[in-house]
From TrEMBL:
InterPro entries: Endo/exonu/phosph_ase_sf (IPR036691), Endo/exonuclease/phosphatase (IPR005135), RdDP_mobile_element (IPR052560). Residues 53-100 form the Endonuclease/exonuclease/phosphatase domain. This is Endonuclease/exonuclease/phosphatase domain-containing protein. Signal peptide: none annotated. One of its GO terms (molecular function) is catalytic activity. The lineage of its organism: Eukaryota, Metazoa, Spiralia, Lophotrochozoa, Mollusca.
Amino acid sequence: MQENWLRGLILVAAPKEMERKLSCIKIGDPEVHNIYKPPTLNCDSPNVKVVNYPVVVMGDFNSHYTEWGYQDDFKAGNDMIQWTEQPNATLLCNPKDKDTF
């Protein structure tokens, strides 16, 4: 694991395998962060916490959660739900959207 700091999103102890799968763009407010977690990457979810200024986090997290229409829950899906339950965080996910794979 390595330490990472992205302004707007504090990412602590991200797995080295995720190093090239994180990007951050600052074009005024909010900041935009993109994360891609390959489906074959089995690792603990990064320790992430939201900060108090506008940030958009999007990406392909390859995370299952039954409330999103999947038949099972993945640990990464449960981790994402816990992360978005923090104050001032909102998860935009429509399980009726067509699959992208």
